[in-house]
Amino acid sequence: MIKVSIVIPCFNEVKTIGSILEKVLDVQLSLDKEIIIVDDFSTDGTREYLKAIEGHNNLIKIIYHTENRGKGAALRAGFKLASGNIILIQDADLEYDPADYNKLLDPIIEGRADVVYGSRFIGGEQHRVLFFWHSIGNKILTFLSNAFTNLNLSDMEVCYKAFRKEILDKLELKENRFGFEPEITAKISKLNCRIYEVGISYYGRSYEEGKKINWKDGVRAIYVILKYNLFG
To answer: Is the pTM of this model over 0.85?
Structure first.
């Protein structure tokens, strides 16, 4: 039986972690699943919530970082623990809907893809209307990444990415924070693997609602694109 490991990096998401975990548990899949939550040293009560539910469901594994290391570091810890044939990334907020899992997983399950990216910019799914310049920034970063990788992705920065485990096992990932997205894109592009993209829904948050990524992360992403595409 094919198994998917759903890796959830988590930092200060006490308002949403319970809801997203319920959605992930409830989603109906044609394969087995495990859920790996990596708490990146939350200080808002998220950590206490996770400790309270720990051991209540054998599908859930929890890793606790002893310091805040960033999303990329949290994902690496989750990937290392994952035992599934497929690994899927899920943020701990409610911006992305687990109801889209089957669309993300089907190209891999059917043997057509090694990697699947979601996209907030293609398809006819629901999207919350938010920041113009944030969307422009995403498109600029995707364009720059595509120029170096020779891929035609529409949404490089998207959270929803699914991988055959064999692909991830070939990568040595180093970025600790949001630079994870352009780094992994640069590195999978060099493997000549089969990459698909599917449209997903998106319920973006405002900064007042807890959105964390900012312009400094965009500047870092440009550096990461250049670094890993030009120098490995």
So the answer is: yes
